């Protein structure tokens, strides 16, 4: 089945599209087989969160947009799952906040970096970093720690969607302001982040872009978005949503549905 053959009225449409993109990413050589496993874990958490953007995630997305707009040198880090799931959305976000895009892989091969860079260019990217490999994240072995000297190494703010915990911690130790997108609020990466976004990458990236457009000419609102966001509270809210949750009901069903879910969505 191709993506366009998935019936749009299917109750799990978004989830099926996501699976399809990851599968196509593996076939195209841009997503690793490990990426399939990461996708499965993400899907399970998204199901428990009710496949919607929580109010606390929306606040995180707004704070992320404000932080990116205030940055001197923001970089969006792209791995094989991100490239398969939201290539055009990453390109849009980079344009909205004037960020670099850098391919950075946990299971690094030059071939896969090149394929991902080509894939991003097919979706409108101009410059894609990640092939120079002339910088490093201290404290990690060579394969995991290689970055571009004028990219992630020089960045003040990095967006690391679906990052593994070790690298998130090592980037934090370098003093970067980290924005992590991850559906698991218990994972080390969002717990290390300055701004944890507990949301599906597919919903999160375009929403950060929308907030960035909204905040572009509003410096006072940017400060407010950053100051009013509390990372620990957002993590706690996501955990509570999972515990009390709507167990996989999509947005509208959840809105008509049980009271516990309506409480969360308020
Ligand atoms: P660690 O504690 O080291 O961070 P981990 O379990 O997070 O370990 P991975 O196997 O790299 O390590 O997990 C991938 C993460 O990516 C999972 O937490 C999963 O929830 C998340 N994830 C997968 N797909 C998506 C997606 N589409 N959007 C957001 N997060 C996702
Ligand atoms: Mg993680």
From TrEMBL:
Instruction: Mark out the compositionally biased spans (Low complexity).
Output: 256-266
| Annotated stretches, region: Disordered | 243-266
* InterPro entries hit by this protein: PPS/PS, PPS/PS_sf
| Highest taxon above the source species | Archaea
Protein known as = 4-phosphopantoate--beta-alanine ligase
Q: Which reaction does it catalyse?
A: (R)-4-phosphopantoate + beta-alanine + ATP = (R)-4'-phosphopantothenate + AMP + diphosphate + H(+)
A family per Pfam: PPS_PS
Q: What does this protein do?
A: Catalyzes the condensation of (R)-4-phosphopantoate and beta-alanine to 4'-phosphopantothenate in the CoA biosynthesis pathway.
Supply the source organism for this entry: Halorubrum persicum
What does the record give as EC number?
6.3.2.36
**Where does this protein hold ATP?**
19, 41, 182-184, 188-189, 200-201
Q: What family is it from?
A: Belongs to the archaeal phosphopantothenate synthetase family.
Q: Tell me, what is one Gene Ontology molecular-function annotation carried by this entry?
A: acid-amino acid ligase activity
The pathway is:
Cofactor biosynthesis; coenzyme A biosynthesis
Can you state the subunit structure given in the record?
Answer: Homodimer.
Q: Which GO terms describe its biological process?
A: coenzyme A biosynthetic process
- Tell me which UniProt keywords the record has, alphabetically: ATP-binding, Coenzyme A biosynthesis, Ligase, Nucleotide-binding
């Amino acid at each position: 089945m191709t993506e366009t053959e998935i019936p749009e009225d299917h109750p799990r449409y978004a989830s099926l599209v996501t699976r399809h993109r990851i599968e196509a990413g593996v076939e195209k050589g841009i997503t690793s087989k490990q990426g399939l496993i990461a996708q499965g874990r993400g899907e399970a958490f998204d199901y428990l969160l009710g496949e919607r953007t929580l109010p606390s995630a929306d606040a995180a997305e707004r704070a992320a947009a404000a932080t990116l707009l205030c940055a001197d040198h923001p970089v969006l880090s792209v791995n094989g799952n991100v490239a398969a799931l939201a290539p055009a959305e990453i390109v849009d976000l980079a344009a909205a906040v004037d960020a670099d895009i850098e391919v950075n892989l946990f299971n690094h091969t030059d071939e896969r970096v090149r394929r991902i860079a080509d894939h991003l260019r097919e979706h409108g990217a101009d410059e894609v970093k990640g092939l120079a490999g002339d910088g490093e994240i201290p404290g990690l072995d060579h394969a995991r720690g290689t970055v571009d000297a004028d990219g992630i190494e020089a960045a003040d703010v990095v967006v690391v969607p679906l990052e593994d915990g070790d690298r998130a911690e090592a980037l934090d130790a370098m003093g970067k302001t980290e924005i992590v997108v991850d559906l698991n609020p218990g994972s080390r990466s969002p717990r290390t982040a300055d701004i944890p976004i507990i949301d599906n990458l597919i919903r999160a990236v375009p929403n950060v872009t929308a907030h960035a457009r909204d905040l572009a000419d509003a410096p006072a609102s940017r400060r407010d978005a950053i100051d009013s966001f509390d990372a620990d509270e957002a993590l706690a809210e996501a955990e509570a949503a999972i515990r009390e949750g709507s167990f996989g009901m999509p947005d509208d069903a959840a809105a008509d549905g049980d009271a516990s879910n309506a409480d969360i969505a308020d």
